[in-house]
Amino acid sequence: GAVVSQHPSWVICKSGTSVKIECRSLDFQATTMFWYRQFPKQSLMLMATSNEGSKATYEQGVEKDKFLINHASLTLSTLTVTSAHPEDSSFYICSGLGQNTGELFFGEGSRLTVL
Amino acid sequence: AQSVSQHNHHVILSEAASLELGCNYSYGGTVNLFWYVQYPGQHLQLLLKYFSGDPLVKGIKGFEAEFIKSKFSFNLRKPSVQWSDTAEYFCAVNARNSGYALNFGKGTSLLVTP
Lengths: 115, 114
Prior knowledge:
The structure holds 2 protein chains of 2 kinds. In chain A, strand 5 (44-51) and strand 6 form a beta hairpin. The N and C termini of chain A lie far apart (36 Å). By secondary structure, chain A is an all-beta fold. Chain A is globular, with a radius of gyration of 13 Å. In chain A, strands 2, 4, 5, 6, 9, 10 and 11 form a 7-stranded mixed beta sheet that branches. A 4-stranded antiparallel beta sheet of chain A has the order 1-3-8-7, with no helix packed on it. Chain A has strands at residues 4-7, 10-13, 19-25, 32-38, 44-51, 57-58, 67-73, 76-81, 90-97, 104-106, 110-114. Chain B is mainly β. In chain B, 0% of the residues lie in helices and 54% in strands. Chain B has strands at 3-6, 10-14, 19-21, 23-26, 31-38, 45-50, 56-58, 64-68, 73-78, 87-95, 103-104, 108-113. In chain B, the strands form 3 sheets. In chain B, strands 2, 5, 6, 10, 11 and 12 form a 6-stranded mixed beta sheet that branches. In chain B, 33% of the residues are buried. The model of chain B has no long low-confidence stretch (mean pLDDT 92). The interface between A and B is medium-sized, with 22 and 19 residues.
């Protein structure tokens, strides 16, 4: 299947700093990418839907000014956690929508720890 | 509210045992149904999906799932598990014609012992 790569896999940062997570579709073009968040022993929660070249659509309760999403190209979407706090510590997972199959392909996830 | 429930949070089986993982959903309309697997340290992979047609769908690695509309269920089965099936399993649903974003269950952690 198609490959989606996330970077970094692990990141530790100090409270108040910003962290950028990249999500790349390596062998297909993803016009739509989804960002999920997973707390320990919880399900994946959809944070936002991003479409290439347009503003992301955020789910209810997700602060768009805190979680900045950019989808500037068909193969790259980024999630920036601004002014991170310990409660933002989580596992962030992106997925890209395959244009022809309608199937979602997931990245490996990025674990953020805010000290 | 839309929701996906996975009944078993942790399952431990011996090799060659049969597996059934429960998944129920609460949605008002027509749905698409998925099972994903996440092996330790790896990304989510699609095991199988149901969009329409035969309610018994077969996926990769010998897995199958049956959609029972009257029960709002989509249980995952495998007749004989292997040690390599040790992983986290997620059931996911999306409402048809409402985009491709998935609503996930909490997952079931499966441990297969030799």
